[in-house]
Amino acid sequence: MAGQLIVALDVSSRGRAEEIVSLLGNAVDFYKIGYQCFYGADGFALGKDLLKAGKKVFFDLKLLDIDNTVEKGVAAIAESGATMLTVHAYPQCMRAAVRGAAGSDLCVLGVSVLTSMDDADVAEAGFARDTAGLVALRAQQARDAGIGGLVASAHEAEMVRTIIGPKMAIVTPGIRPAGSAMGDQKRAMTPGDALAAGATHLVVGRPVIAAADPAAAARAILADMNTGLRVA
What we know:
eight-stranded parallel barrel
């Protein structure tokens, strides 16, 4: 189950990132490196070092560009031995990413709708669908593109699973233990409920890395995840 918990290293200092990894020890073996860490803390080098140490690494870079650029960028990440990488869930982008990851073990994930967005935000962005409708469309397109999975809110996980089938990953950010602050998340869910809804991996940042005892916070989340697995 520990492999289903991904801790987001959302920090700007490599020293702080390494401190968090050290504090978590064997409680966590999967880490997400997003924009803040990638650009502010030499995150690509950090990720490669974590991989050498036997950890799994999820580069959350949300790539979107012309096909050739996406394909070559994904290929470069694949060569690092990374476990997961995000691209925006546009059909051309996902198909290019599949070509870039060919022959590797990299799981390419399409980002459907950010968990900080709700129906009003989707409408403001110009989409003629509500949040659930846009996620459903992206899920169909991700399935047809042949990528490894989808990033989606746990609120849409059950629906997404019916569309993509049993094999693709569903990675859910916006995870908040009961009683914790929502922050900028608008479509959040507890760890246990997210797994029960059909998520395969949970991304957790602030509730772990900002905790007084990150390892204890991670263990509590893992315990909650276990209840979700029993329900599922």
